[in-house]
Design a protein that fits this description.
7-stranded mixed sheet; 32% helix; binds uridine 5'-triphosphate
Length: 408
């Protein structure tokens, strides 16, 4: 993109200030800025006003989950089906590691956090160990796609290399970068990080599939014959990955997707719950759960919306291709955005000063016709690390790991 094209693009979205310092930049900086302008989708900013109105929910009703009891009854059959698919190379895993992990407060990527007590035990190491269990069980290497972002790609890839991929076969690990979205003021002007850089952040965990497409990973997936993708968050150190029983259940029930769920610990637990929305599978995020939704009971007097998602999903890849042209709802989130002020000084704000723009993986579920909620035991499969202490923290995860006989 040349200067004039950049000017035109920026004028279309009212962002001309991005070129304010262009004449002061050296040749390389100029090229970088023009490339960033070219690659940035400024249209998201025009959605600020739409979002204030907020998407209303459709008609919400309970969804039937496959419970622990039912899974136990068919465990062997499901596991056999899942293992057959894995041995045929039809399953891949996608690790979402593009987040900023701001709540944990470490400068490094979240997966590099050492949760060990007597020896180093990195979050990434636990994830790889969990996947190796299935590699050992199936006797097959499983392709693992790791999503990083502009902010953590180099550090993450260097760390894996330094740790010798935690004994995983490096030929089966593929890194790809998540697309970035601009961050703006409340009035919709993009922030500048520097004279030659627009302030950007990863475009939310819903960006994984389009980022896979943009980086050519989906072409690889098609060539390799991978049909199922198990997508999961970096921070649940107990989760089972490429779980053959889960895969077998989703295949047997002929579903387009599956979501691992746990019974909510209490009605106020901050997890999204599965439901049907206008007859389609859907997830109501914790901040959208009304009193009425929380208090609704099923025919047995149990909470009707009690299955919380743990960010471990299975998707049939072909189904994703079909929905990928549908736009995911944009979540506009107030955040602290470091920026350069009008005098050219770098500012690290103490309180939120603008918006970031994200899409969420949970919104993909609603675009599909079917999704199987698959219950797992929370004490065996759910140890999220969001904070340093308290709920969903390093402390609580360590306790759960030890309960599961994992040496720390
Ligand atoms: P969270 O929503 O918990 O965000 O991510 P986070 O960035 O890890 O942590 P905070 O909120 O800043 O403290 C859930 C999962 O989605 C991934 C994260 O890496 C984590 O695995 N994620 C999130 C991405 O891959 N990209 C994103 O843009 C956001």
């Amino acid at each position: 993109m040349n200067f004039e094209e950049a000017q035109n693009k920026l004028a279309k979205y009212g962002q001309e200030h991005v070129l304010k310092y262009f004449n002061e930049l050296n040749r390389e900086q100029k090229e970088n800025l023009l490339a960033q302008i070219d690659g940035t989708d400024f249209s998201v900013i025009s959605k600020i006003t739409d979002n204030i109105k907020k998407n209303p929910h459709g008609i919400i009703s309970p969804i039937k989950a496959m419970t622990l009891k039912e899974i136990e009854a068919y465990k062997e059959e499901f596991t056999k089906t899942g293992l057959e698919a894995i041995r045929a190379g039809k399953a891949g895993a996608v690790l979402l590691a593009g987040g900023m992990g701001t709540r944990l407060g470490s400068d490094n990527p979240k997966g590099m956090y050492d949760i060990g007590i007597t020896k180093p035990v990195y979050i990434f190491q636990r994830i790889i160990r969990n996947l190796l269990d299935i590699v050992d069980m199936s006797g097959t290497w499983i392709h693992l796609f790791i999503m990083t972002s502009d902010k953590n790609h180099e550090t993450t890839t260097a760390f894996f290399k330094e740790q010798k991929y935690f004994t995983y076969n490096p030929g089966y690990i593929h890194f790809f970068k998540q697309d970035m979205a601009p961050a703006s003021t409340y009035e919709g002007k993009v922030y500048m990080e520097d004279k030659d850089r627009i302030a950007t952040s990863p475009n939310g965990n819903g960006g994984w599939y389009s980022s896979m497409q943009n980086s050519g990973i989906t072409d690889f997936i098609h060539k390799a014959g991978i049909e199922w993708l198990n997508v999961f968050a970096v921070d649940n150190v107990l989760q089972r990955i490429a779980d053959p029983c889960f895969l077998g259940a989703v295949i047997s029930k002929n579903c387009a997707a599956g979501a691992k769920v746990v019974c909510k610990a209490d009605p106020d637990e901050k997890v999204g719950v599965m439901c049907l929305e206008d007859g389609h599978p859907s997830i109501v995020e914790y901040y959208d759960q009304t009193e009425q939704l929380r208090n609704t009971k099923d025919e047995n007097g149990m909470p009707a919306y009690n299955f919380g998602v743990i960010l471990n999903y299975l998707f049939h890849e072909r189904e994703l291709e079909e929905i990928c042209d549908n736009e995911l709802p944009l979540h506009i989130v107030e955040k602290k955005i470091p920026y350069m002020d009008e005098t050219g000084k770098f500012v690290n704000p103490a309180k939120p000063n603008g918006y970031k723009f994200e899409t969420l993986i949970l919104d993909m579920i609603h675009l599909l016709d079917t999704c199987l909620p698959f219950e797992v035991e929370r004490n065996k499969e759910f140890a999220p690390i969001k904070n340093k202490t308290g709920i969903d923290s390093i402390e609580s995860a360590r306790k759960l790991l030890q309960e599961n006989n994992i040496e720390l």
